[in-house]
Amino acid sequence: MAFGIIQAISKKLEFYGKVKMMSRPNKTYNQIDYINKEYIMAPMLLEEFERLPLIDVKEYRDLKKKSLKLREKQLKVS
Fold this sequence. Notes:
By secondary structure, the protein is α+β, with helices and mostly antiparallel strands. It has one domain. The chain has two helices and two strands. It has helices at residues 2-15, 58-77, and strands at residues 28-35, 38-45. A two-stranded antiparallel sheet has the order 1-2. The chain is flat, with a radius of gyration of 21 Å.
């Protein structure tokens, strides 16, 4: 997971002009598995893709509004 987070952050930093990448980041990482009492190194391709900010997801906004209204009711009652 940290491998993907580093990819996403470096992509954002480059997009906003905060850093200039001299080369493309490596998208292959070595996963170490323990199978049948042996350690095996398996290269895996991991490419991050950017999702919408959570606030841009309609279902999240609706849920947030609903919870805020419920919280307001609770505060009025107390």
